[in-house]
């Protein structure tokens, strides 16, 4: 076997990327990340939720458009429950919006008229506006840029073919490639092998990666992720005595401060036609995310929250205050530990009729165990030395500590190492960053699926080329 | 964030010097206390608490910036279209390149040949920069004939073998990945329909194996692949013509044992899946084992020391101890010459007839050892150099021990030059290393009634005297040890008494049994030897010597001593008895009485003290 000579150091510039202004697109359940390869953060992060005016085909995309209460505005998401795109038509539109709104923009025209040389004051605002017209005007938005897209580890062939079809046919990209989020997240941490634990919004996945290739048999996924935690918080609010009111921002006109635990004194807005339930739900979700960010804490171990005196210890820890948009506020004690305990311990999850007890095999420790079990025995220690933690929900306070404890409890005899990048951006956008690295490498150019190849072999070429 | 280091890591290349540097820097950074976010008021920063802020905060650093070099007009850059040589489809992508201002000399490199003027048809660069990363794997190939002739297998169809080779190629010998992706479908429907479009279906069906797809393990895959590789290798290069490297490769390929590998993996997995308890238990057991080993070593060392003190090398021990004693080359040489001499004398006796009467050694045998040369030489030069050559004293006629005794003939290992008096030898024996010891020996001898000057210092007398001196030395040693032990036991005794007086008389009967415990803690390894009495060690040694003394005068019935020697039957006792019987009768009578007396005198103290201790 001939490999590169590993004993000589590479010359300077040998790895300097060779950027071809490729675009990296990392769609997720909560947000879509898009940006140019070679940059270190995605320039365009836009919600996967979109608005649709009922009984019309008018879509609203982007952060600014979907938070304004309007009558008949339905908030939807094109994702299916298991991390596979369900509504391809809209998906393509939202993705296109994510790309064109901030990255490619309008075609470069005459410099005198393209707006770039105008008075800077008038220049703003254009980017985020939902201007379907300009998008439609452009024939093919990606004619200039190769596109690297991410996909979950269990993406079915159909979905993969659909992705290349959209990129080639609708966007006219000259070259395309699909890579798994797990591999890219590992790349972002500088690892070619490892176990990638990605706790996103709709699902959690554990992906063993060896030399930049996903070990498909080991890929595990579960629905216990950010949305599950949000639901747990909702349940907790509902089940607490008295019930904790959850009022989203858009309902509140003004508020006055009140004491902890006492009813809110706020003036609420009134709507002639109240916004739809889906709108309210989405807005509530924003409050919950805020709550997740600032209050929810994970019992760091040792042991589970329900073990022995752990709950007592948790009770004795100082609480954390949280104020709802309408001014209602309280200090949350042990309850804040319960919201996310279900990620690790199914029996600790809050349940009701609509939310059955999660399955044991969907908890994180079990997922990791199952993933490792499906890997060749020789590679297991190597993988356990590189456990990459990524995804927005891993930002839950003390998540890393608990995960570390759980993994060491399962594999006490190996050296287990968690790689959890500190900066928020790297955690949330790891897959995109990995894609950015990959697509800017000169050595990656030969992997692109070119338009010519696509036309020759058809959409099924992704199966052969993007393994 | 991703840096050159990450890229290097990803591609499995070594970290350069700068990579190490950056690693060091990183560590230093990580070790630094909580990073202060600049540009945010301290009070605001405090609100974040220990969590990372939910929104990424970017610092506007007033970092050093290199001064802009302003040399001439701005350089122009162009989006240069290029084709990658590693691709076959001629995909044209664009990357940014400096636009050359003047026609550059023709050189190899990406932006080398550049047309002058902008309006000439766009130049497309031919980039081969990254060609070196386009690596194809080497795979053994075979023809259909070869397959039919050598590579057939009951377990593997030709189709599956081909599939295996394809997968190995696709995943570049990464077996874990190959196994993960290995998914051979012999009767793949889509495959079938494609294939049978022009052929007739029944024929296609007939050729397809109908066995359900097997679950192959990594070992199965490897075994098949290695087997084929080895066979092909042998076909291409006959075994004899392989160079070392090829041969080792061939060896490893052909010696692959899937079962062994499988078992090894099972064990590895089992090792990894141990529970916390098992891991802890193993750690505990290992620590325990180490502890036991250390204790055993210590015990051995102590025993060794004791033995060294007790043992005295007896003159003819080697011969009696059998072959095991012939460890030194000298001893071996002596044996050889002895046997050689026997051989020779036998030969002479039987009139030179060799064969059956030969004892086992001839010169050829002797050649094997380094001493054999010596022996041969000595055999040749025996007559001339009898005095100087140590092994050359083989007498012309062997004397029986009785005869030797009778004629007072002796054989020596080594003769010192010159003439010595036997009495000098005896005198020398009285001297010990230290003055005190010499005096003690003298005192002991005086007590035994051995006069300063022995009137008839024959060899036998010297021998017996030597043994006597040896025993006296041993005795003195033992006494020293015993005194030490006694002192210790006295201290412990006092401790015990003090404790028992504290504990009160109520459980005094109990304390007898338990009193050993604190002692046992002090000297765990000794505890066994101590069981018969509190100062068993000293006592036993005494008995040993007592018995030596008694050996010849057994009938006397030394009541005192015997009473103490109850149940003490050591090897050493027996040996001592034998030893003491060897000396001739000339001295024995005098010695035995003296012995007895001395023994009783010496043991008196111990008896008293041990009796004290027992109460
Ligand atoms: N600081 C935080 N603490 C806790 N949870 C957070 C934090 N920030 C984001 N989240 C949660 O993380 C989730 C979004 O994570 P991420 O962007 O990785 O998901 P995604 O990739 O869009 O979804 P998926 O991977 O399921 O397709 C949301 O549920 C959000 O509530
Ligand atoms: Mg994700």
UniProtKB/TrEMBL annotation, chain A:
Residues 108-130 are annotated as: Disordered. PROSITE patterns: ACTINS_2. Pfam families: Actin. It comes from the Eukaryota. Belongs to the actin family. This is NuA4 histone acetyltransferase subunit. It comes from Didymosphaeria variabile.
UniProtKB/TrEMBL annotation, chain B:
It comes from the Eukaryota. GO terms for molecular function: transcription corepressor activity. It holds the Pfam family SANT_DAMP1_like. Residues 130-233 form the DAMP1 SANT/Myb-like domain. Its main location: nucleus. InterPro entries: DAMP1_SANT-like, Swc4/Dmap1. Belongs to the SWC4 family. This is SWR1-complex protein 4. It comes from Didymosphaeria variabile. The gene is SWC4.
């Amino acid at each position: 076997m001939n490999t590169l000579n590993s004993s000589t150091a590479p010359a300077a510039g040998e790895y300097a990327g060779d950027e071809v202004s490729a675009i990296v697109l990392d769609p997720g359940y909560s947000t879509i990340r898009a940006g140019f390869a070679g940059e270190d953060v995605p320039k365009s992060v836009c919600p996967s939720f979109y608005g649709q005016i009922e009984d019309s085909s008018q879509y609203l995309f982007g952060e600014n458009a979907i938070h304004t209460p309007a009558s008949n505005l339905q908030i939807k998401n094109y994702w299916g429950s298991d991390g596979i795109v369900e509504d391809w038509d809209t998906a393509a539109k939202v993705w296109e919006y994510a790309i064109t709104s901030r990255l490619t923009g309008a075609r470069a025209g005459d410099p005198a008229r393209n707006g770039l040389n105008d008075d800077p004051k008038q220049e703003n605002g254009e980017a985020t506006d939902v201007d379907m017209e300009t998008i439609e005007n452009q024939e093919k938005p990606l004619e200039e840029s190769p596109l690297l897209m991410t996909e979950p580890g269990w993406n079915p062939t159909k979905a993969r073919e659909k992705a290349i079809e959209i990129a080639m046919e609708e966007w006219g990209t000259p070259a395309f490639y699909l890579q798994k989020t797990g591999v890219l997240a590992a790349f972002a941490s500088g690892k070619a092998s490892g176990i990638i634990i990605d706790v996103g919004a709709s699902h959690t996945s554990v992906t063993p990666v060896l030399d930049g290739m996903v070990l498909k048999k080991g890929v595990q996924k579960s629905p216990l992720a950010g949305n599950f935690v949000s639901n747990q918080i909702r349940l907790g609010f509902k089940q607490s005595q008295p019930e904790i009111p959850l009022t989203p921002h858009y309902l509140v006109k003004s508020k006055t401060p009140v004491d902890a635990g006492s009813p809110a004194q706020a003036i609420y807005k009134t709507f002639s036609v109240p916004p739809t339930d889906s709108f309210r739900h989405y807005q509530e979700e924003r409050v919950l995310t805020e709550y997740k960010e600032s209050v929810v804490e994970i019992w760091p171990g040792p042991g589970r929250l329900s073990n022995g005196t752990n709950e007592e210890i948790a009770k004795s820890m100082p609480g954390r205050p949280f104020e709802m948009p309408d001014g209602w506020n309280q200090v949350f004690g042990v309850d804040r530990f319960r919201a996310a305990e279900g990620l690790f311990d199914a029996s600790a999850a809050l349940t009701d009729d609509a939310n059955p007890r999660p399955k044991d095999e969907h908890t994180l420790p079990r997922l990791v165990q199952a993933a490792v079990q499906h890997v060749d025995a020789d590679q297991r220690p190597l993988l356990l030395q590189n456990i990459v933690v990524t995804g927005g929900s891993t930002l839950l306070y003390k998540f890393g500590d608990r995960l570390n404890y759980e993994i060491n409890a399962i594999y006490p005899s190996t050296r287990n190492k968690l790689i959890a990048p500190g900066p928020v951006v790297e955690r949330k956008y790891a897959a995109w960053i990995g894609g950015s690295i990959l697509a800017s490498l000169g050595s990656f150019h030969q992997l692109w699926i070119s338009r010519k190849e696509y036309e020759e072999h058809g959409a099924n070429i992704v199966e052969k080329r993007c393994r | 964030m991703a840096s050159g280091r990450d890229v290097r890591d990803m591609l499995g290349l070594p970290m350069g010097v700068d990579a190490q540097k950056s690693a060091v820097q990183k560590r230093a950074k990580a070790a630094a206390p909580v990073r202060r976010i600049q540009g945010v008021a301290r009070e605001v920063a405090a609100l974040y608490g220990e969590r990372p802020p939910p929104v990424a905060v970017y610092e506007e650093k007033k970092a050093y910036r290199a001064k802009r070099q302003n040399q001439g007009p701005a350089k122009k850059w162009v989006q240069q279209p290029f084709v990658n040589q590693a691709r076959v489809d001629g995909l044209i992508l664009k990357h940014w390149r400096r636009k050359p201002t003047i026609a550059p000399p023709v050189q190899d490199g990406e932006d080398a040949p550049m047309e002058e003027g902008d309006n000439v048809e766009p130049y497309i660069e031919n980039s081969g920069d990254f060609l070196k990363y386009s690596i194809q794997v080497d795979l053994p190939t075979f023809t259909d004939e070869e397959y039919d002739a050598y590579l057939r297998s009951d377990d593997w169809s030709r189709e599956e073998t081909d599939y295996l080779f394809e997968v190995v190629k696709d995943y570049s010998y990464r077996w874990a990945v190959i196994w993960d992706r290995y998914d051979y479908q012999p009767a793949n429907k889509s495959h079938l329909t494609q294939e049978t479009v022009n052929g007739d279906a029944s024929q296609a069906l007939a050729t397809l194996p109908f066995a359900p797809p097997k679950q192959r393990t990594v070992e199965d895959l490897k075994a098949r692949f290695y087997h084929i590789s080895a066979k092909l290798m042998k076909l291409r290069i006959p075994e004899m013509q392989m160079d070392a490297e090829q041969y080792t490769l061939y060896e490893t390929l052909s010696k692959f044992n899937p079962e062994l590998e499988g078992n090894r993996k099972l064990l590895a997995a089992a090792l990894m899946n141990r529970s916390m308890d098992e891991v802890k238990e193993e750690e505990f057991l290992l620590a325990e084992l180490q502890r036991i080993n250390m204790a055993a070593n210590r015990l051995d060392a102590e025993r060794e020391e004791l033995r060294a003190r007790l043992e005295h090398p007896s003159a003819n021990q080697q011969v009696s101890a059998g072959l095991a004693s012939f460890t030194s080359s000298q001893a071996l040489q002596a044996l050889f010459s002895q046997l050689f001499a026997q051989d020779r004398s036998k030969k002479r006796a039987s009139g030179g007839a060799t064969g059956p009467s030969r004892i086992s050694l001839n010169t050829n045998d002797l050649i094997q050892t380094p001493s054999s040369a010596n022996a041969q030489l000595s055999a040749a030069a025996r007559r001339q150099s009898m005095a100087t050559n140590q092994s050359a004293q083989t007498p012309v006629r062997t004397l029986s021990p009785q005869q030797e005794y009778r004629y007072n003939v002796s054989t020596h290992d080594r003769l010192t030059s010159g003439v010595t008096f036997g009495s000098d030898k005896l005198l020398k024996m009285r001297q010990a290393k230290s003055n005190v010891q010499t005096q003690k020996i003298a005192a002991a001898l005086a007590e035994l009634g051995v006069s300063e000057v022995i009137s008839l210092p024959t060899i036998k007398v010297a021998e017996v005297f030597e043994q006597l001196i040896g025993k006296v030395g041993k005795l003195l040693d033992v006494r020293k040890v015993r005194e030490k032990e006694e002192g210790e036991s006295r201290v412990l005794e006092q401790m015990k008494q003090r404790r028992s007086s504290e504990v009160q008389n109520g459980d005094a009967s109990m304390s007898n049994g338990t009193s050993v415990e604190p002692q046992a803690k002090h000297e765990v390894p000794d505890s066994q030897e101590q069981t018969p009495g509190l100062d068993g060690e000293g006592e036993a040694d005494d008995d040993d010597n007592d018995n030596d003394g008694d050996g010849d005068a057994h009938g006397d019935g030394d009541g005192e001593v015997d009473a103490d020697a109850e149940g003490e039957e050591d090897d050493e006792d027996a040996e001592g008895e034998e030893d003491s019987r060897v000396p001739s009768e000339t001295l024995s009578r005098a010695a035995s009485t003296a012995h007895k007396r001395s023994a009783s005198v010496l043991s008196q103290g111990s008896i008293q003290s041990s009796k004290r201790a027992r109460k």
